[in-house]
Specification:
59 residues, mainly alpha, 3 helices, 0% strand, globular, Ankyrin_rpt-contain_sf
Length: 59
């Protein structure tokens, strides 16, 4: 099993490949088991708190 850091790096690679339209890389990463539902922690909000349902700020 890969480490958490490796998983996060793979997830970021998947997001980048998707944003660039690199379908080959996207398929490769998805086929290797990268979580397609992972989220990027914007400004640390997902790591240290949650987004409010009524605003765009971290709580």
């Amino acid at each position: 099993m890969s480490s958490l850091l490796e998983q996060k790096e793979q997830q970021e690679r998947l997001r980048e490949a998707a944003a660039l339209g690199d379908i080959r890389e996207v398929r490769k990463l998805v086929d290797s088991g990268v979580d397609v539902n992972s989220q990027n922690g914007v400004n640390g909000c997902f790591k240290y708190g949650t987004l409010s349902k009524t605003s765009d700020t971290c709580q």
